[in-house]
Design a protein that fits this description.
Oligomer: single chain
Largest sheet: none
Strand content: under 5%
CATH class: Mainly Alpha
Distance between the termini: 14 Å
Shape: globular
CATH architecture: Orthogonal Bundle
Number of helices: 14
Protein backbone atom coordinates (compact mmCIF):
# COMPACT_ATOMS: atom_id res chain seq x y z
CA UNK A 1 0.00 0.00 0.00
CA UNK A 2 1.22 3.54 -0.79
CA UNK A 3 2.89 5.29 2.10
CA UNK A 4 2.06 8.97 2.62
CA UNK A 5 4.34 11.63 4.05
CA UNK A 6 3.33 12.37 7.67
CA UNK A 7 2.59 16.03 6.93
CA UNK A 8 0.34 15.18 3.99
CA UNK A 9 -1.31 12.42 6.02
CA UNK A 10 -2.28 14.73 8.88
CA UNK A 11 -3.42 17.44 6.48
CA UNK A 12 -5.57 14.97 4.55
CA UNK A 13 -7.13 13.71 7.76
CA UNK A 14 -7.97 17.26 8.80
CA UNK A 15 -9.78 17.76 5.49
CA UNK A 16 -11.61 14.45 6.05
CA UNK A 17 -12.75 15.56 9.51
CA UNK A 18 -14.02 18.92 8.22
CA UNK A 19 -15.88 17.25 5.35
CA UNK A 20 -17.47 14.68 7.67
CA UNK A 21 -18.61 17.41 10.07
CA UNK A 22 -20.18 19.49 7.29
CA UNK A 23 -22.00 16.44 5.93
CA UNK A 24 -23.22 15.49 9.39
CA UNK A 25 -24.58 19.01 9.94
CA UNK A 26 -26.49 18.96 6.64
CA UNK A 27 -27.81 15.38 6.67
CA UNK A 28 -30.61 13.94 8.77
CA UNK A 29 -34.34 13.39 8.88
CA UNK A 30 -34.53 17.12 8.04
CA UNK A 31 -32.03 17.74 5.25
CA UNK A 32 -30.56 21.20 4.75
CA UNK A 33 -29.45 22.77 1.49
CA UNK A 34 -25.81 23.82 1.36
CA UNK A 35 -26.73 27.50 1.02
CA UNK A 36 -29.05 27.20 4.02
CA UNK A 37 -26.34 25.48 6.06
CA UNK A 38 -23.83 28.19 5.11
CA UNK A 39 -26.20 30.86 6.42
CA UNK A 40 -26.74 28.96 9.67
CA UNK A 41 -23.00 28.54 10.19
CA UNK A 42 -22.61 32.27 9.55
CA UNK A 43 -24.93 32.91 12.52
CA UNK A 44 -28.29 33.69 10.86
CA UNK A 45 -30.71 32.53 13.58
CA UNK A 46 -33.78 33.38 11.46
CA UNK A 47 -33.17 30.47 9.08
CA UNK A 48 -35.18 27.28 9.46
CA UNK A 49 -33.01 24.54 10.87
CA UNK A 50 -30.87 26.82 13.05
CA UNK A 51 -31.92 25.08 16.26
CA UNK A 52 -31.64 21.64 14.64
CA UNK A 53 -28.02 22.31 13.70
CA UNK A 54 -26.77 23.91 16.91
CA UNK A 55 -28.90 22.22 19.55
CA UNK A 56 -29.24 18.71 18.15
CA UNK A 57 -26.62 17.90 15.54
CA UNK A 58 -23.58 19.86 16.68
CA UNK A 59 -23.40 18.37 20.23
CA UNK A 60 -23.82 14.89 18.77
CA UNK A 61 -21.08 15.49 16.20
CA UNK A 62 -18.65 16.73 18.86
CA UNK A 63 -19.44 13.73 21.05
CA UNK A 64 -18.95 11.37 18.12
CA UNK A 65 -15.56 12.89 17.31
CA UNK A 66 -14.46 12.67 20.94
CA UNK A 67 -15.55 9.04 21.30
CA UNK A 68 -14.00 8.03 17.98
CA UNK A 69 -10.75 9.79 18.85
CA UNK A 70 -10.63 8.16 22.29
CA UNK A 71 -11.24 4.67 20.91
CA UNK A 72 -8.73 4.99 18.09
CA UNK A 73 -6.06 6.40 20.40
CA UNK A 74 -6.71 3.75 23.04
CA UNK A 75 -6.60 1.04 20.38
CA UNK A 76 -3.22 2.22 19.11
CA UNK A 77 -1.92 2.28 22.70
CA UNK A 78 -3.19 -1.21 23.52
CA UNK A 79 -1.61 -2.65 20.39
CA UNK A 80 1.73 -1.20 21.43
CA UNK A 81 1.32 -2.20 25.07
CA UNK A 82 0.40 -5.81 24.32
CA UNK A 83 2.53 -6.14 21.17
CA UNK A 84 -0.56 -7.54 19.53
CA UNK A 85 -1.89 -5.95 16.31
CA UNK A 86 -5.32 -7.48 17.01
CA UNK A 87 -5.72 -5.74 20.37
CA UNK A 88 -8.48 -3.17 20.76
CA UNK A 89 -9.53 -0.76 23.54
CA UNK A 90 -11.86 -3.33 25.09
CA UNK A 91 -9.49 -6.27 25.26
CA UNK A 92 -8.42 -5.77 28.90
CA UNK A 93 -11.94 -5.78 30.30
CA UNK A 94 -12.11 -2.07 31.10
CA UNK A 95 -15.19 -1.58 28.93
CA UNK A 96 -16.83 -4.59 30.58
CA UNK A 97 -16.42 -3.08 34.03
CA UNK A 98 -17.69 0.27 32.78
CA UNK A 99 -20.69 -1.40 31.12
CA UNK A 100 -21.58 -3.27 34.30
CA UNK A 101 -21.54 0.00 36.25
CA UNK A 102 -23.68 1.75 33.64
CA UNK A 103 -26.24 -1.05 33.48
CA UNK A 104 -26.50 -1.10 37.27
CA UNK A 105 -27.27 2.62 37.15
CA UNK A 106 -29.96 2.01 34.51
CA UNK A 107 -31.48 -0.79 36.59
CA UNK A 108 -31.62 1.51 39.60
CA UNK A 109 -33.26 4.23 37.53
CA UNK A 110 -30.41 6.67 38.02
CA UNK A 111 -29.87 9.73 35.85
CA UNK A 112 -26.89 10.67 33.70
CA UNK A 113 -24.87 11.76 36.73
CA UNK A 114 -25.37 8.48 38.57
CA UNK A 115 -24.62 6.57 35.37
CA UNK A 116 -21.35 8.47 34.86
CA UNK A 117 -20.25 7.78 38.43
CA UNK A 118 -21.13 4.08 38.25
CA UNK A 119 -19.40 3.73 34.89
CA UNK A 120 -16.24 5.31 36.28
CA UNK A 121 -16.34 3.06 39.35
CA UNK A 122 -16.73 -0.07 37.21
CA UNK A 123 -13.89 0.95 34.90
CA UNK A 124 -11.54 1.78 37.79
CA UNK A 125 -12.33 -1.53 39.50
CA UNK A 126 -11.49 -3.38 36.30
CA UNK A 127 -8.20 -1.49 35.88
CA UNK A 128 -6.97 -2.29 39.38
CA UNK A 129 -8.12 -5.92 39.24
CA UNK A 130 -6.41 -6.57 35.91
CA UNK A 131 -3.18 -4.86 36.82
CA UNK A 132 -3.05 -6.34 40.32
CA UNK A 133 -3.63 -9.89 39.13
CA UNK A 134 -1.35 -9.53 36.11
CA UNK A 135 1.50 -8.34 38.31
CA UNK A 136 0.89 -10.81 41.14
CA UNK A 137 4.02 -11.88 42.96
CA UNK A 138 6.00 -12.38 39.80
CA UNK A 139 7.12 -10.04 37.07
CA UNK A 140 4.61 -8.05 35.07
CA UNK A 141 4.37 -9.07 31.41
CA UNK A 142 2.22 -8.30 28.40
CA UNK A 143 1.13 -11.93 28.17
CA UNK A 144 -0.10 -12.06 31.77
CA UNK A 145 -1.84 -8.72 31.33
CA UNK A 146 -3.59 -9.92 28.18
CA UNK A 147 -4.70 -13.24 29.68
CA UNK A 148 -5.96 -11.57 32.85
CA UNK A 149 -7.87 -8.98 30.85
CA UNK A 150 -9.49 -11.56 28.58
CA UNK A 151 -10.64 -13.68 31.53
CA UNK A 152 -11.99 -10.66 33.41
CA UNK A 153 -13.79 -9.46 30.26
CA UNK A 154 -15.49 -12.86 30.04
CA UNK A 155 -16.58 -12.50 33.66
CA UNK A 156 -17.99 -9.03 33.05
CA UNK A 157 -19.80 -10.38 29.98
CA UNK A 158 -21.47 -13.07 32.06
CA UNK A 159 -22.56 -10.47 34.61
CA UNK A 160 -23.97 -8.26 31.83
CA UNK A 161 -25.96 -11.20 30.45
CA UNK A 162 -27.32 -11.87 33.94
CA UNK A 163 -28.46 -8.27 34.35
CA UNK A 164 -30.13 -8.31 30.94
CA UNK A 165 -31.93 -11.53 31.87
CA UNK A 166 -33.36 -10.16 35.11
CA UNK A 167 -33.89 -6.57 33.93
CA UNK A 168 -37.46 -5.23 33.69
CA UNK A 169 -39.01 -4.96 30.24
CA UNK A 170 -39.30 -1.18 30.58
CA UNK A 171 -35.54 -0.66 30.69
CA UNK A 172 -34.38 -3.63 28.62
CA UNK A 173 -34.54 -1.86 25.25
CA UNK A 174 -32.56 1.10 26.57
CA UNK A 175 -29.94 -1.19 28.04
CA UNK A 176 -29.54 -3.12 24.80
CA UNK A 177 -29.39 0.06 22.73
CA UNK A 178 -26.69 1.47 25.00
CA UNK A 179 -24.66 -1.73 24.85
CA UNK A 180 -24.67 -1.59 21.04
CA UNK A 181 -23.30 1.96 21.11
CA UNK A 182 -25.48 5.05 20.91
CA UNK A 183 -24.78 8.78 20.70
CA UNK A 184 -28.41 9.86 20.89
CA UNK A 185 -28.40 10.70 24.59
CA UNK A 186 -24.82 11.87 24.94
CA UNK A 187 -23.47 15.39 25.07
CA UNK A 188 -19.89 16.71 25.11
CA UNK A 189 -18.42 18.08 28.29
CA UNK A 190 -15.25 19.76 29.45
CA UNK A 191 -13.99 16.61 31.16
CA UNK A 192 -14.33 14.52 27.99
CA UNK A 193 -12.36 17.07 25.96
CA UNK A 194 -9.75 17.21 28.75
CA UNK A 195 -9.37 13.42 28.86
CA UNK A 196 -8.80 13.19 25.11
CA UNK A 197 -6.42 16.16 25.13
CA UNK A 198 -4.35 14.87 28.05
CA UNK A 199 -4.35 11.34 26.64
CA UNK A 200 -3.06 12.56 23.30
CA UNK A 201 -0.44 14.81 24.89
CA UNK A 202 0.90 12.00 27.09
CA UNK A 203 0.91 9.58 24.15
CA UNK A 204 2.90 11.93 21.92
CA UNK A 205 5.27 12.64 24.81
CA UNK A 206 5.91 8.89 25.10
CA UNK A 207 6.22 8.53 21.32
CA UNK A 208 10.01 8.37 21.13
CA UNK A 209 10.18 5.79 23.92
CA UNK A 210 7.52 3.69 22.20
CA UNK A 211 9.46 3.85 18.94
CA UNK A 212 12.45 2.38 20.77
CA UNK A 213 10.28 -0.24 22.50
CA UNK A 214 9.39 -1.60 19.09
CA UNK A 215 12.92 -3.04 18.94
CA UNK A 216 12.42 -4.93 22.21
CA UNK A 217 12.54 -4.24 25.93
CA UNK A 218 16.26 -4.99 26.32
CA UNK A 219 17.32 -2.68 23.50
CA UNK A 220 15.02 0.08 24.73
CA UNK A 221 16.28 -0.24 28.30
CA UNK A 222 19.88 -0.11 27.05
CA UNK A 223 19.02 3.20 25.32
CA UNK A 224 17.67 4.67 28.56
CA UNK A 225 13.94 3.96 28.27
CA UNK A 226 12.25 3.21 31.64
CA UNK A 227 10.32 0.29 30.17
CA UNK A 228 8.10 -0.60 33.12
CA UNK A 229 7.11 3.02 33.83
CA UNK A 230 6.31 3.70 30.17
CA UNK A 231 4.12 0.61 29.92
CA UNK A 232 2.38 1.44 33.20
CA UNK A 233 1.54 4.97 32.04
CA UNK A 234 0.37 3.67 28.68
CA UNK A 235 -1.89 1.10 30.33
CA UNK A 236 -3.61 3.59 32.63
CA UNK A 237 -4.00 6.25 29.93
CA UNK A 238 -5.46 3.71 27.47
CA UNK A 239 -7.81 2.39 30.13
CA UNK A 240 -8.98 5.91 30.99
CA UNK A 241 -9.68 6.68 27.34
CA UNK A 242 -11.63 3.44 26.84
CA UNK A 243 -13.66 4.01 30.01
CA UNK A 244 -14.49 7.59 29.01
CA UNK A 245 -15.61 6.46 25.55
CA UNK A 246 -17.86 3.78 27.05
CA UNK A 247 -19.29 6.31 29.48
CA UNK A 248 -20.25 8.61 26.61
CA UNK A 249 -21.56 6.18 24.01
CA UNK A 250 -21.58 2.57 25.22
CA UNK A 251 -19.62 -0.13 23.43
CA UNK A 252 -18.71 1.01 19.91
CA UNK A 253 -16.63 -1.64 18.21
CA UNK A 254 -13.99 -1.77 15.47
CA UNK A 255 -12.89 1.87 15.68
CA UNK A 256 -9.89 1.11 17.88
CA UNK A 257 -9.04 -1.99 15.87
CA UNK A 258 -9.30 -0.78 12.27
CA UNK A 259 -8.03 2.80 12.50
CA UNK A 260 -4.48 2.08 13.80
CA UNK A 261 -4.08 -0.69 11.19
CA UNK A 262 -5.08 1.60 8.35
CA UNK A 263 -2.71 4.33 9.50
CA UNK A 264 0.25 2.00 9.86
CA UNK A 265 -0.32 0.73 6.33
CA UNK A 266 -0.37 4.35 5.15
CA UNK A 267 3.07 4.90 6.64
CA UNK A 268 2.35 6.22 10.15
CA UNK A 269 5.03 4.10 11.81
CA UNK A 270 6.30 6.86 14.10
CA UNK A 271 4.07 6.91 17.18
CA UNK A 272 4.41 10.68 17.38
CA UNK A 273 2.50 10.77 14.08
CA UNK A 274 0.33 7.70 14.62
CA UNK A 275 -1.38 8.96 17.77
CA UNK A 276 -2.64 12.35 16.48
CA UNK A 277 -3.53 10.73 13.16
CA UNK A 278 -5.54 8.08 15.03
CA UNK A 279 -7.52 10.77 16.85
CA UNK A 280 -8.37 12.52 13.58
CA UNK A 281 -9.25 9.41 11.60
CA UNK A 282 -11.12 7.76 14.49
CA UNK A 283 -13.12 10.91 15.18
CA UNK A 284 -13.99 11.45 11.53
CA UNK A 285 -14.88 7.79 11.06
CA UNK A 286 -17.33 7.78 13.95
CA UNK A 287 -18.93 11.06 12.81
CA UNK A 288 -19.56 9.48 9.40
CA UNK A 289 -20.87 6.27 10.99
CA UNK A 290 -23.25 8.20 13.24
CA UNK A 291 -24.51 10.24 10.30
CA UNK A 292 -25.32 7.00 8.50
CA UNK A 293 -27.02 5.71 11.65
CA UNK A 294 -29.26 8.80 11.65
CA UNK A 295 -30.07 8.86 7.94
CA UNK A 296 -30.19 5.32 6.51
CA UNK A 297 -33.58 4.50 8.07
CA UNK A 298 -34.64 8.07 8.93
CA UNK A 299 -36.59 9.07 10.95
CA UNK A 300 -35.74 5.82 12.78
CA UNK A 301 -32.20 5.67 14.16
CA UNK A 302 -30.00 2.63 14.57
CA UNK A 303 -27.16 2.21 17.09
CA UNK A 304 -23.89 3.62 15.80
CA UNK A 305 -22.10 0.48 17.00
CA UNK A 306 -24.04 -1.53 14.44
CA UNK A 307 -22.87 0.79 11.64
CA UNK A 308 -19.23 0.66 12.75
CA UNK A 309 -19.43 -3.15 12.74
CA UNK A 310 -20.93 -3.21 9.24
CA UNK A 311 -18.15 -0.93 8.00
CA UNK A 312 -15.33 -2.27 10.16
CA UNK A 313 -15.63 -5.96 9.34
CA UNK A 314 -15.05 -5.72 5.55
CA UNK A 315 -12.49 -2.93 5.96
CA UNK A 316 -10.49 -4.98 8.46
CA UNK A 317 -10.61 -8.04 6.21
CA UNK A 318 -9.25 -5.94 3.34
CA UNK A 319 -6.49 -4.59 5.57
CA UNK A 320 -5.63 -8.13 6.65
CA UNK A 321 -5.40 -9.21 3.02
CA UNK A 322 -3.34 -6.23 1.79
CA UNK A 323 -1.06 -5.99 4.81
CA UNK A 324 -0.88 -9.60 5.91
CA UNK A 325 2.88 -9.61 6.36
CA UNK A 326 2.60 -6.79 8.85
CA UNK A 327 0.26 -8.79 11.04
Amino acid sequence: MTRIHPGWLLASLMVLVIASVIWALAAGSVSLAWSQLAGILAGDSTLAGYDVVWRLRWPRIVTGFLVGGMLALAGAQMQVLLRNPLADPYILGVSGGAAVGALLALLMGGGRGVMAIMTAVGACASVFIVFGLAHGRGSWSSTRLLLTGVVLAAGWGALISFMLAIGPDGTLRGMLFWLMGDLGYSSPSVWSVAILGVGLAVSVWLGRSLNLLAYGDLQAAALGVPVFRVRLILYFVGSLLAAAAVMLAGSVGFVGLVVPHALRLLGAGDHRVLFPAAVLLGGGFLVVADTLARTVLAPQQIPVGVVTAFIGVPVFLVLLYRGGKGL
